[in-house]
Amino acid sequence: MQIRGEEVLLPTSAVSAFPRPHWLQGRVLGTLNEPVYRSHSLRVAFEDATKLCAQEQEDAGLDILCDGAQYYEWEAPGFQLEPIFHFIPENLGGFEPYGPPGDGAKYAPFYKAAVTSKIEWKRPIFASVVTAMQGATKKPFKVAFLGPAQQSIIVDNQFYDDPIDVARDLAVAMNRELKYLVSIGLEAVQLIDVLAPYTQDMWQIEVQNAMFDGVDATKFWHVCYGSVDGQRDVFEAKTREMIPLFKESTADVIHVETCSPEFSDLEAFRDFPTDKILGLGVVDAKNSIVETPEVIADRIHARLEVVPADRLLVSPDCGLGYFSRTTAYAKLRAMGNAVEMVRAKL
């Protein structure tokens, strides 16, 4: 994989989320009608937490860092989904923040953002995250966000005749956001989307590609199977069914969970498109036991049987934000040690 013009064998990265220090509490960033930061003290605490998060990733030997989503309230048990669902809509025009409750028992505690007029980009959403990471590291990093297809099905559409138009205008708004972030120095972006295992309708790739259009950065797509408090949302991998989506996507790197037994059919990836990097999880994000480097190295070797080392990205299955900091970073260091072990034998 090319990183800053150099070929990196078995590049390593994390997915998105890491646990916050105990002294960073509450919501850090404001909504569209608030200041970017809710207080100067929160800004300092957030930027300090970002520095710790970046340093832990550097110590683990990651080649591309992630922002760690230190602005999300991972420490609020049972409510970690709320900011994921609402952070982007609350920072775009066209939404009213307090719509009806979510569908089903799992999502009922979370209100839906209501679409009441045309969705529009008004101001930068993740610029503060980019600048915090720029102050924390000199290494390349990515910023993660929920995608337009996924976002469109968890809002309450009160404006558009065609529900897919919600996703299309979300894609247009996010395209402006990503181009702005690239203009201030961001080198990689990461789409997070759980929709593809549920449905393989091609409209989701249409809006994904519209969002990525003209974005001059390395484009990651993390197919998320869910991991809130170790609980999954997806119970069938659907890898073979998703391959046509992967082939049509303009993402440079597509990442999928593979540690859990339900998702461990590596043979399905032999049809993965050869013009893309395949990211495969080698650290279990649903088990608090810290794997040894030897166990992770064995997983990497197994994945090298279906994808060559120059096209394999090594990563945890999903974000590690729901673990303790001790567990999350121990898993990350074990993964970094495992990669060095495997590289030495290649």
Helix content: 25-40%
Q: Reading side by side through the largest sheet, how are the strands ordered? A: 3-6-8-9-10-11-12
Total number of beta strands? 12
- H and E string: EEHEHEHEHEHEHEHEHEEHEH
User: Which fold name corresponds to the CATH topology?
Assistant: TIM Barrel
Q: Supply Rg.
A: 19 Å
Short description:
The protein is an alpha/beta fold. It contains ten helices and twelve strands. Helix 7 links the parallel strand 8 and strand 9.
Can you put this structure into words, describing what you see?
This protein is α/β, with parallel strands linked by helices. It has helices spanning 40-59, 81-86, 104-107, 127-134, 148-152, 163-183, 203-212, 239-248, 293-303, 325-345, and strands spanning 2-3, 6-7, 65-66, 92-96, 114-121, 141-146, 156-157, 188-193, 218-223, 253-256, 277-283, 312-316. The strands form three sheets. Strands 3-6-8-9-10-11-12 form a seven-stranded parallel beta sheet. Strands 4-5-7 form a three-stranded mixed beta sheet. A two-stranded antiparallel ribbon has the order 1-2. The longest helix is centred in the middle third of the chain and has 21 residues, at 163-183. The mean pLDDT is 93.
Note the topology:
Blueprint: E1 2-3, E2 6-7, H1 40-59, E3 65-66, H2 81-86, E4 92-96, H3 104-107, E5 114-121, H4 127-134, E6 141-146, H5 148-152, E7 156-157, H6 163-183, E8 188-193, H7 203-212, E9 218-223, H8 239-248, E10 253-256, E11 277-283, H9 293-303, E12 312-316, H10 325-345
Helix pairs in contact: 6-7, 9-10
